[in-house]
User: Fold this.
Amino acid sequence: MNSIIESIGTSQFRIMYKNTLCEFIPFINCSFDKIPNTVKGKVVYVDIGEYNPLGWFHDVIVNKEDIIYTSKSKSSTYVNLSPIMS
Assistant:
């Protein structure tokens, strides 16, 4: 990927940020199994009234247990989020 903006919609990772399920883009490029217990990255969250795409990305540090991994499988677009909603 040439830019972080191009990564919107292609991330396999999601986190809860401000009570919203958002894309998470880790600074390290590795599989979910190899992510350390604490990882730095960017979360994609558009604040109310924010029109500049550069303002959509917020630096965060998250625990691996808070990352929701979604498969890139084209055959399945359904992701069961019920465990995190309860």
